[in-house]
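Slide 14.
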Amino acid sequence: MITPVTNQPAASNAPVAGRGMDQLGQGDFLRLLTVQMQQQDPMDPVDNKEMLAQMAQFSSLAGVAETNSMLERIAEKLDQLIVSTESASDLRNGEN
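Slide 15: predicted structure.
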């Protein structure tokens, strides 16, 4: 006799605080992808095209997040440059 092994935690009645879609990250996507692969029907697995499309979307999302981070750092540097330029200009004009 074969006994199925499950590693799923026991259900809890405690409320779960949700997060908005804008707060999901790479770790969340990987967890969802892993669970999807674990729970798929072995007789009817996920289509390879669908899996590749999901991975491409994940890669694209990671690139966009990295670009946003870089743009934020550039904006901070530009703000610092503007402030220092204005301060230097004020000092040359005799203002404090």
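Speaker note: The mean pLDDT is 76.
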